[in-house]
Amino acid sequence: MRKVLIRVLIALAIVASVAACGSDDDGETADTAAPAPATTAAPADETPTELDVAMILLGTKEEGWYATFIDSMNRVIESQPHGLTMTLDTFEEIAYADGERVIRDLAQQGKYEMIVAHSTYVDGVQAVQGDYPDMLFAYSGSGNDDHVGGTNAYWIDVFIHEPAYLAGIIAGMMTETNKLSAVAAFPFPNVNGPLNAFFDGARSVNPDVEIAGVTYIESWFDPATGANAAAAQIDAGADIVYAERFGPFAAAEEAGNVRAIGHFTDQLGLSDIVLTSAVAQWDAAINDLVDAWYAYHTEGTAYNAPGERIVYQSMRDGGSALGAISDAVPADVVAAVEEAEAAILAGDLTIPLVLDSPS
Amino acid sequence: MGDFFTYSVILGIFVATLKIATPLLIAATGELVAESSGILNLSIEGTMTLGAFAGFVTANETGSLWLGLLGAAAGGGALALLMAIMTVTVRVNQVVAGLALNILGLGAAFFWYRSVYSAGGSIQIPVVDKFEVVSVPLLSSIPIVGEVLFEQHWLTYIALLMVPTTWMFLNRTKYGLELRAIGHNPEACDMRGVPIASRQYAAVIFGGAMAGVGGSFLSLAATGLFFPDIVAGRGWIALAIVIFGNWRATWILAGSLLFGFLEATQLALQASDVNLPYQLLLALPFVLTILALVLNRSRSGAPLSLTIPYHRGER
Predict the structure, then answer these.
(1) Which residues 163-192 of chain B have a CB within 8 Å of chain A?
(2) Check: CATH 1.20.120 for B7-299?
(3) Which of A216, B149, B245, B258 is buried most, with the most CB atoms less than 10 Å from its CB?
(4) What's the CA gap between B229 and B25, in Å, rounded?
């Protein structure tokens, strides 16, 4: 009899605890369910003061494509748009295949209001965006063409062909062998754009310039192969290497008398042989995202991501810039670069964006 | 695009061959010693990555590249010690243990990296002043041969010297022959009074230390940079080279040089106007490895007890 009583008590305790869990769940869903259907009506009655951003990366924070975004994000955070206190948390080394799982985990946490999947994670974003209509998602880079998010998923991108063209002017005027080269990751449009502009810029000031190799190392992250690729180009006569990937600086240092151009971030500080860098800037893109998020949460303006890529490509829009120029660059070369830069900014000089492999 | 058949391009291919082969050769030679004792250590990729970072951070903190090499050996050796504990003492499945420790090595390197260099963004890319190329006096002035063989990094010379050293050790010393005997028939060795466990520990730790040093070539000699993905599959290639070399030091040297040569050639082709699909050359080493595996199947040099845990008094 006593045993039966104990069993009943245990059973009751289990039922009670399950019920307790259930009511917790109800409470949570009630909180989030209310604003869910509202895509046009104002979902929040208080003006937001904080914005926590999560960013997932295929590689690490130092790799150019990500570093330039983090640099821009830090500047935006510093500027406190709309008086927002913003934070950025990064999640590194997320494989494409894990994209959806990680994005969903981050969305579920409730901390983050904006998730930037800073690479070709479009499938993951698409799978999750509908379940969190109040959140803003962004993804970037080329290669998303088959799927586009739209609504609350923004596809942002930068092209840095304009500063690459300016770097090409420096290379064209400074090369002694009249042979330039480039070490790059894959024959992708985003990769090829600045390479073509670099060679165009060089040819614009020096018609004798030849391409001593455009090497695709078939990896985003393999600086040792990047160095070997540059060494082969230097053997073929190149004396200025456009370093779309890390690695060529080491080969140029080893060879002596060889210079290099940095890519994505300002890399002048990384090595003495760097002449300048073609720098990508995401400030304008990030500010637009923050504006869209803020308008949604204060005025109820619906998210309106277009079903296509938003490209922040021109120096005039702030999508790119030429990095610091080395002291090794002579004054007349700097003057030529400044002249072309002014023409680009004034709209008098248009740099064609060519996305095929350079030839 | 430039000409392919010029002196500097062809010479460059041979210089690059040795350079590309160096990390592969060091790691594969170490793995040969470990496997000779009957322990298959599949964690080479992770071990190289851990070594690459241990070496990098040591060099960065102390300012000494040579201490960096010691750090790399210690880092790789430490991971291999875990491998030895799991496979020799606990006797878990070597394949499972190796794959698990591979992930541990990659993860540990990344965790350690991030706890030392945390800021991210473009300001925080850590750099070390890498090893310079060392010209051997007199020898480096020999045309062609001297320029290829004696204008290399210290680690390349060390890697090349390790080949005859390892061959001598495994084929001409009592200790090395006993190690190979353990790899073939640990029971017989045990009866002869050869200590099994301690020899296997030593072999596996040596292999790990070598993999660590091989990895540090990438961070301390090839680039002066560290990224968590810097090894980029070279650990797996080193494992393939041991198979390609049929567990013989000389053939492992040949295999490493072949990998290096094909990679160097495809890079030179891309820098030239010769229109050959470089992807073919990238795939060729793996095709050759499979071919070698098939051709050697009847006279495989693999240690007979490779991957089989040794339990005393059981059969």
Answers:
(1) none
(2) no
(3) B245
(4) 19
